[in-house]
Protein 1
Amino acid sequence: MGRTGTLADREVMRLVAELYYERDLRQPEVAAMTGFSVSKVSRLLTAAREQGIVRISVEPAPEVRPAVAEQLEQRFGVDIRITPGHERDPAAATRLAGVGAADHVVPWLPEKGTIGIASGYTVAAMVSALPRLRLPEVTVVPIVGGWDVQNPYLDSNQVARRMADRIGAQTRALHAPAVLDTPEMKDALLREPTIAATTSLWGRLDMALIGVGGSPESYPGYRTAVDRLGDESRRDLRDMDVIGDLAGRFFCADGAFVDAWGDRTLAIPLDELRLARRVVAVAAGSSKAAPIVGALRTGLLHALITDRPTAEAALKLAG
């Protein structure tokens, strides 16, 4: 009886899959034809994939690397990975690059240890595209403070928690803003036990995943961390020739870091970030070419993941 039921179930899955995949019917049409609910049709299609009745293959990425990646690598000594896409809209480009970056990041994930992660539009997109993994001996920690109720991708705890969930890891929280009113407030927060438990892991990261913040004069079409600072602070950063930031630390076009509010910024110190075994930056979009060149010049990055148009623009600027 059990075997007959199982065989009958497989035949129903096969029939539904044939209607959907081979006859190009939509799920509501399959439901109307079979008398099933749309949700049952969806469950049957999922089960058909899980049991191997339906096998979906995707053409592998080409093995030939774009010349622009090799040229940037030779110039800066940083591993350059190129994601698909030629989007002109900055928001679309950066999100697509984040999604495409997941395939490059997965082989670099440690089997045990600590991953530090910064919030941001591109990093959050990368996290959302990670496959389900089981890495119970890995801990994901935020390396920049900050939260944003309306824009979860700027909430460092949410991004870290989401990544831990995707890869089956543990997580630690950092309940603190990115910039404090006074150095004394920052020092007091760093002494708080739960925050200290998180920041104590910063000096021994196996991997750091960060975005490349844009120029204070850039408005890419989505909310960024710089937007939290306000117009006056934007002008201050511009006057200091700031071109971008890495994990809350601002830098100029020549790669030199600027101590803008460093004594009030709750983020991983540069000397601890430099100790990370692998620092990976993910960024793309027309507004990110100049910041990427500056970021490459800092000497902080081991790898950069971007799309081809941004890489080509960065190479032109660097030349």
Protein 2
Amino acid sequence: MNIHSRIKELSEEYFNEALAIRRHIHQHPELSFQEFETSKYIQSKLEEYGIPFKAGFVKTGILGRIEGKKGPGKTIALRADMDALPIQETNDIPFCSVNNGVMHACGHDIHSAGLLATAKILKTLEDEIEGTILLVFQPAEESHPGGAKLMLEEGLFEDQEPDMMMALHVLPEMPAGTVGFKSGMYMASGDEIHFKIKGQGGHGALPHKVTDTVLATAQVITSLQQVVSRNAPPAIPSVLSFGKVIADGATNIIPNEVTVAGTFRTMNEEWRAKAKKRMETIATSVAEAHDTNCEFKVLHGYPVLYNDEKVTSIARTEASNLLGEDKVVDMDIRMTCEDFAYYSLKYPVTFFRLGVKSPEATKSSALHTPTFMADEQALKTAMQTLSAITLKLLQ
């Protein structure tokens, strides 16, 4: 029996267990930096499988280890995130979230269950493995500054550095049974832009006696769009969006201050740094032209996620050989961001997509919504692809 057939056989054998794990994690979601019970549950499963691990990275993070019995070789790290979102689930299912206002609406339950099941497959195959597999169960992908950054700072790989790293993420628009890959730049950096316009408010009927903070804010927001439309290099995707503007006045009251918050996304670290300096210059200058003052702040977020071309090419080819070419999709860039990018700054990585749309569904609920639900058959695809690609990369 070849290795692909063996992996598929084991994925069928372990599927019901993977399903139970997924449903348990889904039913008991925990927010970023609070994944204590999830971490204990995952640790109990690793103990059950006979996989040694270290726990306590950023309080809840775990690093498991599978040593191949064929001898030393390359080291690959596989990562799954564990945290959930502050969303009230509205799905009518037996394993609906029991934690009020918390839900696995981004598929991290699939990620963790898929990695645990993959770990069991790889542990079963350890006699055929040359090299080391590190299993990273990470907290707080959803919250700044991101669990990836903090785990690395706490010495996640100080005992053994990986030669390469891999992770997957669910994609509700793509059918279950399929996976998607993109070499090179794949996901954007993500910075939070915050500024406050201050002036002397007053009666809206007497604008000549006040400094109009609302008008100044409107001009600043409009002027900042030139950073993307006129300053960004055409070959570098960039997005600047403002989703929060608070001018707490009234129909006839101009407030003393207006607060604004937004996000800046791009695909190039050098341009990213230049753009943020340009934004501050524009915001403060336009505010000053309106006799107001601008307090400008940037919360430096996740970096650009760059998929190593060689690792991704090998992974894509192996997925095609395993699933069939018709089950592998070439992805486009995404302006969303992901803290797995911190690993990509240090190691060759591939971060790929797992389709979770049910064949019966005409339309799937989006990520980060109260009705998001993955087709659980996708767990088999996760187990199979992670296992097969891991073994191929270790060669």
